[in-house]
Amino acid sequence: MLRAVILDMDGTLLDTEIVHYYVIRRILARELGYDPSMTDYLKYCGIPDPVMWPMILEELDSSAVLSLAQKWGIEAEESAIDTDIDIDTYAAENEAAEADDAEVTDGAKAAEVTEEMIYAISEELERLHWEEYDEYIEKNGVKGFPGLKEFLESLREDGIRLAVATGSLRRVVRKNMKILGITDLIEAAATSEDCENGKPEPDVFLHAARLLRVDPKECLVIEDAGNGLLAARRAGMACAGFDGSELPSDMTLAPVVFSDYRKVGAEDLRAWHREQMTGEQHREQMTGEQHREQISGDQHREQMSGDQHREQITGEQ
Fold first, then answer.
1. Are residues 107 and 117 in the same domain?
2. Do 48 and 88 reside in the same domain of the chain?
3. CA 46/CA 166 separation, integer angstroms
């Protein structure tokens, strides 16, 4: 039975995922000379900043990361280069080295990108992200999707409980709920600050279910991002993809997709939940039957082996 609906925030309640893309793209281009396409960004969509920024930095050329560290006064770890080593051996042991161009001088030092440096830069990038996001919202405002508030009101009237689960910050959630006028409709909010692991891990959805005191199997998640849909499925919850955002969405993992809150209601969500949970129960039942068949098969083979062994012993006697 469907008892609760858990909603993502950016791209699901508000059309702000595109704002995050523009802000992050601008920061990366300005600070690291990297201009990600929208397709590149979709890999990180829904992932909280403390996880997203290190992922991006680890994919970039180390020289760009070292340059930014120097610009921001973040010290790099230096490693001494052995000046006695053969240049060809040095190049072979260090894939990034170019043997033909290597110029090693006595006492030279090579800067290395360390985990500490990655996280120090990530913290500053996260600060810039939220600072510039807030500036954009203050200047341009933010809007919810048509029919959202009426949709949520109808669910509450029908006895369905509501929660938000997002990779965003708690202060941003509170601010957005107030802007949308839905603070009184949302009973609980789980954020990136509440969980050790962000999407696509299931933690934030499971935490939202705990806050509502409902079983994960009694929940349906509404998500706009592939990472969020994967997190919902890992949580053992039914899910629906919302494809109404300006930013293109990855709906590959969505069993059902809709793009207009004015065209769906409680009965639709109950039907989606029932269909997915019934399918999950069927898969569990089939898995159980396959397991029993395997055990029976093993027992049969053991019995046959025993019979053959006894026949062999009898024959030898």
1. no
2. no
3. 8
